[in-house]
Design brief:
9 helices, 2 domains, mainly alpha, elongated, homodimer, Arc Repressor Mutant, subunit A, Tetracycline Repressor, domain 2, 183 residues
């Protein structure tokens, strides 16, 4: 039984990989409004019902693919200075998320309808900021409130990207950090 | 020519009304993933190409319908006290936006792909807060920065609703306001 479970896990992971690859390939050659579950399934070499069973619908599949792209690729920059580490994080985050690709990822994650994708996405941000915070504490500093950085630096940047018709400028991002650290 | 333009405007407004009505009616009886542009068009008594020409695709049509629902129905509460007016606004906003219907509206507005719907949505918030601010100034107070309320009260509430798996509590909302006004 346990061995079967392991084999199922392996197959399940391979199906996910193939389906994600199919979505990414189709997005390069098609307008997203033209993409359908049967198209994805055909390209991935699975049946449409496999896709429906696992992802529910196309919006949730797009959300899952977007989350995979949003996973941070490495550790946060380590400048030895907490405020500079946070500045470096938010400048990169704002730039990536306000790009055309970033905006589409945000729309996909939020448009998935469920909370699974958004909670994962938010989790990446927390883990990243907690790494910066742990380094600060390891240097003998007091550390900072990760919640406060999310509420007063990340949230305004995301609100700006989602609801305003312009990208948040580097100056705006740096002012949010300065205001949190120096009032 | 001018008269023709006016008649076009009237027809255009009636088409919008019928199409919005059709979407709202279909959403009551169908899962949104089942709804198609031809279904909406048939119910509204227009051709599918009218819908495509005017709204682009279904996601943009859903976004437009959601924006219509998000338009504030009245003036902000007038308690005579600026902080209490803002508290009253954010408590109601958080409650409405974190409801199932509110979350779906946010997802529709953001998922529309363009910035038209999101910018309108953000505009409603600014107008509402500016009304509260104008009253404060009319009472002889200094007024407040509407930008700051958006960045440090509205944005964290929206981030919370979009990316966390729980509704922002009234206590959380009130603390955001208190922190902005009293540091």
């Amino acid at each position: 039984m346990a061995r079967e479970m392991i084999r199922q896990g392996g197959r399940s992971a391979r199906i996910q990989e193939e389906v994600h690859k199919a979505v990414n390939a189709l997005l390069k050659t098609h307008d997203r409004s033209e993409i359908t579950v049967p198209m994805v399934a055909e390209r991935a070499g699975v049946t449409p019902s496999t896709v429906y069973r696992r992802w529910g619908d196309l919006a949730q599949l797009f959300a899952d693919v977007a989350v995979a792209h949003m996973r941070p690729q490495g550790e946060p920059e380590n400048t030895g200075d907490t405020q500079r580490d946070i500045e470096s994080f938010i400048l990169q985050y704002a730039e990536e998320m306000s790009s055309r690709v970033g905006r589409q990822m945000l729309a996909d994650v939020i448009g998935g309808g469920g909370s699974q994708a958004t909670v994962k996405c938010c989790g990446f941000t927390y883990v990243y900021l907690e790494t910066i915070n742990s380094r600060a504490i390891a240097r003998g500093e007091a550390g900072f409130s990760v919640e406060d950085v999310v509420d007063f630096v990340v949230a305004p940047v995301i609100y700006h990207i989602l609801f305003k018709d312009s990208a948040p400028t580097p100056d705006y991002c740096l002012q949010l950090v300065a205001r949190l650290f120096h009032g």
